[in-house]
UniProtKB/TrEMBL annotation:
It comes from Deinococcus xianganensis. This is Leucine--tRNA ligase. Its EC number is 6.1.1.4. Keywords: Aminoacyl-tRNA synthetase, ATP-binding, Cytoplasm, Ligase, Nucleotide-binding, Protein biosynthesis. Residues 219-399 form the Leucyl-tRNA synthetase editing domain. NCBIfam families: leuS_bact. GO terms for molecular function: aminoacyl-tRNA deacylase activity; ATP binding; leucine-tRNA ligase activity. It holds the Pfam family tRNA-synt_1_2. Gene3D superfamilies: 3.10.20.590, HUPs, Isoleucyl-tRNA Synthetase, Domain 1, Valyl/Leucyl/Isoleucyl-tRNA synthetase, editing domain. The lineage of its organism: Bacteria, Thermotogati, Deinococcota, Deinococci, Deinococcales. GO terms for cellular component: cytosol. Belongs to the class-I aminoacyl-tRNA synthetase family. The gene is leuS. ATP binds at residue 579.
Length: 809
């Protein structure tokens, strides 16, 4: 018998599967559709262990569904635009396209070595002109609907990458990609009107996402219900946004953001030098620095606002804790009931007036050291006194203020429109031309795609490299035919992943982004990937699909019916794997040493999939040994070792209860327990091979079922065994076995037998044994017999499954 040699079988089967088109998806095949999708990778050049971890478990599950009769679509592609390709091009003096396509080829090979059921005939890269053509088509369609527009304003600028960034790409004030502190610049840019969909994006009723993901998106959208209140100022009326109109009578000063348009007008000559210095300093700070808890800073403008009810004069200050990008960029400050306003008032000696008091509480002390932010009763507010106050009870107050023309109900969102343009090369060119006569005009549809020019300089200059290819730049106006210039910005690369799940349905379709006849394949039934995409990618794609729905392109409102996030495989040291830490595990090395099936097994076994955990280099030996045992079990005819007593019922119980457990575990994505159950079953089978049950129909059934159970997790060895057992076709198109419910539940029970209340022996009887049968078995037991011999039995007690008691005298 040959030893288990994965290298001899894995490549062989991968080639055979490829040749027979085993994993080609066909929408006309029978079975309920199931669309399983794992987030596509960026073609960095190498599949790392994280990619394996993210892909093998969903692959196993897709295979399991297929065996259960679902018609499963499981595609893969590459999210190929973005800065790393450009940076690599600058470093290696190659073209981003050359670098990217070489990486794609290498990574496709690595995916194939993993032995997945990916249908490679549907693969595409988002940098394929045939793909990004549809980004351009969508852009123009969105523009026609007023959803793509150009606007000037302050934008986030990364000084290192020399490009603007969307709010979503600024993490704690730093560039998400390179970590450089982000600056603000005033530029005219393209935006997508995602804010039109803010409310709908808060509704998750058609998409099942982990609680954490829903929360992150909800907070990102940041819906706040409140009111706008207008104050008179020397520079005209100024409206503030407040979520606490119930505290209006407690407003003791007003604060403007340093960038607020009225700052200059409101600043008196006396205060001008100080205010200008403060505004300049604030401009040099990042948003994070400005929002950090700590000493509040600010400066008085010298002007006053008039309180709309009392007519009191409220000093107007400038402070950087007020952001120009939120609400109206100005606030009414209520120090008695807001933390930041309180700290500010204490620092600058401004008035603190209590207007909300907790039920039964003492009045706020003059030297109070903190504000009261809870619910309560309105006080010190004239006609409003006695009403309930607090965040939860503002509706009635707003109504009253509205009736008097002082306030207007207002809902504000933190979500901003999606800044869509980048001044970089490796992305989708924005399909617009600029005509001196007719302004910005979309490129006619029949001229799409606008391809990226090939002769450009990649070194970042702060301008789009596309500007440097003058031949490409010059074009004609679609309206007048006169000379015009192309738009030289490229799209944010998040556009690429916003609708790619539709492209897999018909990757070669040329009449539109996808063939509408395939729409019923959507939504993706199970989408899997990292939690790092909880906001950006998911929010953008949810938005995109809603627009597609409104365009009449699709019937669906959500791209993903269910989303699940895998955890992360960390280094041995519990830290994130990274080259600089030197803790990276290379899956290629592991495959060379152990074979793909062992690596697959280990990655499913290493941790609960949704949790992840640290890599343990010793741990892989367990799965490696297990597969050797499995191999021997099936291929070695010699039976050695002491005889065992596994009965037919024991064997069938082990097989069918495992089958039942594994199915349930697949359903709930509990992959590590699947592997554990299969290992346990292997132990029973190894024993059964030395028991009388060996060679019986029950034994054959056990091997057949075990072979099928192995198929999703270890596809190569399962296929080899299938062939060796002389089965037809592929194990991967074989049916998932049906559970024999009776066999899966033990029908015997082992019970202690008491003689006059003392346990004297043990019997194994049928769960449905009658009193007579149970007593007969008990009396037959030698240990019990000794205690009843020669005695008179006065009572026999039998509670099925619980008690056998023989009372003697
Ligand atoms: C008066 C007030 C009294 C407020 C009170 C709060 C508590 P959320 O819930 O996050 O939407 N605010 C408004 N615009 C702001 C800006 N541009 N920068 C900084 N702060 C701003 O927060 C809304 C509250 O944050 C608003 O309600 C306003 O302060 C402040 F006891 O108005 B409030």
């Amino acid at each position: 018998m040959e030893r288990y040699n994965p290298h001899a079988i894995e490549k062989k089967w991968q080639t055979a599967w490829e040749q027979s088109g085993l994993y080609r998806f066909n929408e006309d095949a029978p079975g309920e559709k199931f669309y399983a999708l794992t987030m596509f990778p960026y073609p960095s050049g190498n599949l790392h262990i994280g990619h394996w971890y993210a892909n093998v478990a969903p692959d196993a599950r897709a295979r399991w569904l297929r065996m259960r009769g679902f018609n499963v679509l499981f595609p893969m592609g590459f999210d190929a635009f973005g800065l790393p390709a450009e940076n690599a091009a600058i470093k290696n003096r190659t073209n981003p396209a050359t670098w990217t396509y070489a990486n794609i080829e290498r990574m496709t090979g690595q995916f194939q070595a993993m032995g997945t059921m990916i249908d490679w005939s549907r693969q595409f890269a988002t940098c394929d002109p045939e793909y990004y053509r549809w980004n351009q088509w969508f852009f123009i369609e969105f523009y026609k609907r007023g959803l793509a527009y150009k606007k000037g304003g302050l934008v986030n600028w990364c000084p290192k990458d020399q490009t603007v960034l969307a709010n979503e790409q600024v993490v704690n004030g730093h560039c998400e990609r390179c970590g450089t502190a982000v600056e603000k610049r005033n530029l005219s840019q393209w935006y997508m009107k995602i804010t039109d969909y803010a409310d709908e994006l808060l509704d998750f009723s058609d998409t099942d996402m982990p609680e954490k993901v829903r929360l992150m998106q909800t907070n990102w959208i940041g819906k706040s219900v409140g009111a706008e209140v207008t104050f008179d100022t020397p520079a005209g009326p100024e409206t503030v946004f407040t979520t606490r109109p119930d505290t209006l009578m407690g407003a003791t000063f007003m604060v403007l953001a340093p960038e607020h348009a009225k700052v200059a007008d409101l600043t008196t000559d006396e205060q001008r030098a100080e205010v200008e210095a403060y505004v300049a300093a604030a401009g040099r700070k990042t948003d994070v620095e400005r929002q950090q808890e700590g000493e509040k800073t600010g400066v008085f403008t010298g002007s006053y606002a008039t309180h709309p009810i009392t007519g009191h004069q409220l000093p107007i200050w400038v402070a950087d804790y007020v952001l120009v990008t939120y609400g109206t960029g100005s606030i009414m400050a209520v120090p008695a009931h807001d933390d930041r306003d309180f700290a500010f008032a204490r620092k600058f000696g401004l008035d603190v007036v209590e207007v909300i008091r907790a039920e039964g509480a003492e009045p706020m002390a003059a030297d109070a050291v903190e504000p009261y932010t809870g619910e309560g009763v309105i006080v010190n507010s004239g006609e409003f006194d006695g009403l309930s106050g607090g965040k939860a009870s503002i509706a009635g107050i707003v109504e009253q203020l509205e009736a008097r023309g002082i306030a207007k109900a207002k809902t504000t969102y933190r979500l901003r429109d999606w800044l869509f343009a980048r001044q970089r090369y490796w992305g989708t060119p924005i399909p617009f031309v600029h005509c001196p006569e007719h302004g910005a005009q979309p490129v006619p549809e029949d001229q799409l795609p606008v391809r990226l020019p090939e002769n450009v300089e990649f070194t970042p200059t702060g301008q789009s490299p596309l500007k440097l290819d003058t031949e490409w730049l010059k074009t004609t106006c679609p309206v007048c035919g006169g000379p015009a210039e192309r738009d030289t910005d490229t799209m944010d690369t998040f556009v690429d992943s916003s609708w790619y799940m539709y492209r897999y349905l018909s990757p070669d379709y040329h009449e539109g982004p996808f063939d509408p006849a395939k729409d019923p394949m959507m939504p993706v039934d199970l989408y899997t990937g990292g939690i790092e995409h909880a906001i950006l990618h998911l929010l953008y794609s949810r938005f995109w699909i809603k627009v597609m729905r409104d365009m009449g392109l699709t019937k669906h409102s959500e791209p993903f019916a269910h989303l699940r996030n895998q955890g992360m495989i960390l280094g041995e040291d519990g830290e994130k794997m990274s080259k600089s830490r030197g803790n990276v595990v290379d899956p290629d090395d592991l495959v060379r040493e152990y074979g793909a099936d062992t690596v697959r097994t280990y990655l499913m076994f290493i941790a609960p999939w949704e949790l992840g955990g640290p890599w343990d280099p010793q741990g892989i030996n367990g799965p490696a040994k297990w597969l050797s045992r499995v191999w021997t079990l099936f291929t070695d005819d010699k039976v050695t070792g002491p005889a065992e007593t596994v009965s037919e019922a024991d064997l069938r119980f082990a097989v069918h209860s495992t089958l039942k457990k594994v199915s349930g575990d697949f359903e709930r994505l509990s992959f590590n327990t699947i592997i554990a159950s299969l290992m346990e079953l292997t132990n029973t089978l190894v024993k059964a091979k030395r028991a009388p049950v060996f060679g019986t129909p029950a034994w054959d059934e056990a091997l057949d079922i075990f072979n099928r159970l192995l198929a999703p997790v270890v596809p190569h060895i399962a296929e080899e065994i299938w062939a060796a057992r002389g089965q037809d076709g592929s194990v991967h198109t074989a049916a998932w076995p049906a559970v024999d419910e009776q066999a899966a539940t033990r029908d015997t029970v082992t019970m202690g037998v008491q003689v006059s209340g003392k346990v004297r022996g043990q019997v194994t009887i049928s769960k449905s044994a009658t009193q007579d049968e149970a007593m007969a078995a008990a009396k037959d037991n030698a240990d019990v017999a000794r205690f009843i011999e020669g005695k008179q039995i006065v009572k026999e007690i039998y509670v099925p499954g619980r008690i056998i008691n023989i009372v003697v005298k």
